[in-house]
Design goal:
This protein is mainly β and 174 residues long. Helix content is 14%, strand content 43%.
Protein backbone atom coordinates (compact mmCIF):
# COMPACT_ATOMS: atom_id res chain seq x y z
CA UNK A 1 0.00 0.00 0.00
CA UNK A 2 2.85 2.34 0.85
CA UNK A 3 4.44 1.78 -2.56
CA UNK A 4 1.14 2.30 -4.33
CA UNK A 5 0.63 5.69 -2.66
CA UNK A 6 4.23 6.69 -3.40
CA UNK A 7 3.87 5.63 -7.05
CA UNK A 8 0.62 7.58 -7.40
CA UNK A 9 2.26 10.70 -5.91
CA UNK A 10 5.15 10.42 -8.35
CA UNK A 11 2.79 10.03 -11.31
CA UNK A 12 0.66 13.00 -10.23
CA UNK A 13 3.71 15.23 -9.63
CA UNK A 14 5.57 14.16 -12.80
CA UNK A 15 3.60 16.34 -15.25
CA UNK A 16 4.19 19.40 -13.08
CA UNK A 17 7.91 18.70 -12.95
CA UNK A 18 8.05 17.93 -16.67
CA UNK A 19 6.41 21.25 -17.63
CA UNK A 20 9.09 23.71 -18.60
CA UNK A 21 8.82 26.99 -16.73
CA UNK A 22 8.71 29.90 -19.18
CA UNK A 23 9.44 33.54 -18.53
CA UNK A 24 6.39 35.84 -18.57
CA UNK A 25 6.04 38.09 -21.59
CA UNK A 26 5.80 41.87 -21.43
CA UNK A 27 5.41 44.65 -23.97
CA UNK A 28 8.21 47.20 -23.69
CA UNK A 29 7.79 50.64 -25.25
CA UNK A 30 10.09 53.66 -25.19
CA UNK A 31 10.11 57.17 -26.60
CA UNK A 32 13.47 58.92 -26.72
CA UNK A 33 13.19 62.66 -27.28
CA UNK A 34 15.58 65.57 -27.28
CA UNK A 35 15.24 68.92 -25.57
CA UNK A 36 15.24 71.66 -28.20
CA UNK A 37 16.47 74.24 -25.64
CA UNK A 38 18.78 72.07 -23.52
CA UNK A 39 21.00 72.74 -20.57
CA UNK A 40 24.54 72.26 -21.92
CA UNK A 41 26.02 71.44 -18.53
CA UNK A 42 26.42 67.67 -18.96
CA UNK A 43 28.65 66.58 -21.81
CA UNK A 44 29.26 63.02 -22.89
CA UNK A 45 32.37 61.40 -21.52
CA UNK A 46 34.05 58.78 -23.68
CA UNK A 47 33.05 55.39 -22.40
CA UNK A 48 35.24 52.36 -22.00
CA UNK A 49 34.87 49.46 -24.40
CA UNK A 50 32.47 46.81 -23.15
CA UNK A 51 33.22 43.13 -23.11
CA UNK A 52 30.48 42.01 -25.50
CA UNK A 53 30.85 38.34 -24.52
CA UNK A 54 29.03 39.06 -21.25
CA UNK A 55 26.07 40.80 -22.90
CA UNK A 56 23.20 38.64 -24.11
CA UNK A 57 21.82 40.80 -26.94
CA UNK A 58 18.50 39.71 -28.37
CA UNK A 59 16.07 40.81 -31.04
CA UNK A 60 12.35 40.62 -30.53
CA UNK A 61 9.46 41.30 -32.88
CA UNK A 62 8.35 44.92 -33.00
CA UNK A 63 4.90 45.83 -31.79
CA UNK A 64 2.46 46.85 -34.51
CA UNK A 65 1.51 50.57 -34.54
CA UNK A 66 -1.93 49.78 -33.08
CA UNK A 67 -0.26 47.97 -30.15
CA UNK A 68 1.81 51.00 -29.12
CA UNK A 69 0.26 52.65 -26.07
CA UNK A 70 2.37 55.81 -25.95
CA UNK A 71 1.20 57.11 -29.34
CA UNK A 72 -0.68 60.08 -27.85
CA UNK A 73 2.40 61.18 -25.90
CA UNK A 74 4.53 60.83 -29.03
CA UNK A 75 2.05 62.99 -30.98
CA UNK A 76 2.16 65.67 -28.26
CA UNK A 77 5.97 65.67 -28.42
CA UNK A 78 5.83 66.04 -32.21
CA UNK A 79 3.76 69.20 -31.79
CA UNK A 80 5.89 70.66 -29.02
CA UNK A 81 8.17 73.70 -29.30
CA UNK A 82 10.44 72.35 -26.54
CA UNK A 83 10.91 68.65 -27.39
CA UNK A 84 11.32 66.51 -30.47
CA UNK A 85 10.94 62.71 -30.49
CA UNK A 86 13.86 60.85 -32.04
CA UNK A 87 12.79 57.25 -31.44
CA UNK A 88 9.44 55.60 -30.63
CA UNK A 89 9.75 51.85 -30.48
CA UNK A 90 8.06 48.89 -28.82
CA UNK A 91 8.53 45.12 -28.69
CA UNK A 92 7.27 42.04 -26.85
CA UNK A 93 9.75 39.90 -24.97
CA UNK A 94 9.94 37.18 -22.34
CA UNK A 95 11.40 38.76 -19.20
CA UNK A 96 13.88 36.71 -17.21
CA UNK A 97 15.65 37.28 -13.93
CA UNK A 98 18.41 39.86 -13.74
CA UNK A 99 21.26 37.41 -14.38
CA UNK A 100 19.61 36.07 -17.54
CA UNK A 101 17.92 39.23 -18.80
CA UNK A 102 18.36 40.00 -22.49
CA UNK A 103 19.80 43.29 -23.70
CA UNK A 104 17.94 44.91 -26.58
CA UNK A 105 19.76 47.36 -28.87
CA UNK A 106 17.74 50.35 -30.06
CA UNK A 107 18.56 53.17 -32.47
CA UNK A 108 16.71 55.90 -34.28
CA UNK A 109 17.17 59.27 -35.92
CA UNK A 110 14.93 62.20 -36.73
CA UNK A 111 15.61 65.77 -37.86
CA UNK A 112 19.38 65.41 -37.58
CA UNK A 113 19.36 63.90 -34.08
CA UNK A 114 20.48 60.33 -33.44
CA UNK A 115 19.84 58.10 -30.41
CA UNK A 116 21.17 54.61 -29.79
CA UNK A 117 21.95 52.27 -26.94
CA UNK A 118 20.57 49.37 -24.98
CA UNK A 119 17.49 48.56 -22.95
CA UNK A 120 17.40 45.72 -20.44
CA UNK A 121 14.28 44.50 -18.65
CA UNK A 122 14.41 41.96 -15.84
CA UNK A 123 11.92 40.49 -13.41
CA UNK A 124 12.58 39.15 -9.98
CA UNK A 125 10.36 40.50 -7.24
CA UNK A 126 9.75 43.64 -9.33
CA UNK A 127 10.22 44.66 -12.95
CA UNK A 128 13.47 46.54 -13.50
CA UNK A 129 14.34 48.70 -16.51
CA UNK A 130 17.95 49.58 -17.27
CA UNK A 131 18.73 52.20 -19.92
CA UNK A 132 22.13 52.94 -21.44
CA UNK A 133 21.48 55.44 -24.23
CA UNK A 134 23.46 58.04 -26.14
CA UNK A 135 22.08 61.01 -28.01
CA UNK A 136 23.72 63.22 -30.61
CA UNK A 137 21.32 66.12 -31.16
CA UNK A 138 22.98 66.87 -34.48
CA UNK A 139 25.88 68.87 -33.11
CA UNK A 140 28.47 66.09 -33.23
CA UNK A 141 28.62 65.95 -29.42
CA UNK A 142 27.17 62.87 -27.73
CA UNK A 143 25.36 62.81 -24.41
CA UNK A 144 24.70 59.74 -22.29
CA UNK A 145 21.82 58.66 -20.09
CA UNK A 146 22.50 55.63 -17.92
CA UNK A 147 19.73 54.91 -15.42
CA UNK A 148 17.92 51.96 -13.88
CA UNK A 149 14.63 51.87 -12.09
CA UNK A 150 12.18 49.49 -10.49
CA UNK A 151 8.84 49.64 -12.29
CA UNK A 152 5.35 48.23 -12.11
CA UNK A 153 3.50 46.84 -15.07
CA UNK A 154 1.34 49.47 -16.74
CA UNK A 155 3.06 52.51 -15.19
CA UNK A 156 4.57 55.19 -17.42
CA UNK A 157 8.01 56.36 -16.28
CA UNK A 158 10.12 59.36 -17.27
CA UNK A 159 13.93 59.32 -17.31
CA UNK A 160 15.56 62.74 -17.50
CA UNK A 161 18.84 64.14 -18.78
CA UNK A 162 19.61 67.82 -19.49
CA UNK A 163 19.87 67.06 -23.22
CA UNK A 164 17.19 64.41 -23.71
CA UNK A 165 14.61 62.24 -22.00
CA UNK A 166 12.99 58.83 -22.20
CA UNK A 167 9.40 57.85 -21.55
CA UNK A 168 9.02 54.12 -20.88
CA UNK A 169 6.16 51.71 -20.37
CA UNK A 170 6.34 48.00 -19.53
CA UNK A 171 3.01 46.19 -19.55
CA UNK A 172 1.39 42.81 -19.95
CA UNK A 173 0.28 42.07 -23.52
CA UNK A 174 -3.40 42.72 -24.19
Amino acid sequence: MKYLVLTLLVLVAAPAVAEEETDPEFDVEIIVFRHLNPDDSELQVEREEEDSTEIRRRRFASLAPDQLRLGTINQELLGSRDWSPVLHYGWRQPVAGRDDAAVVSVAGNRRGAYASGTVRVSLERFLRLELDLEMDPGSGTSYRLEQARRMRSGEVHYFDHPQFGVIALISRPE
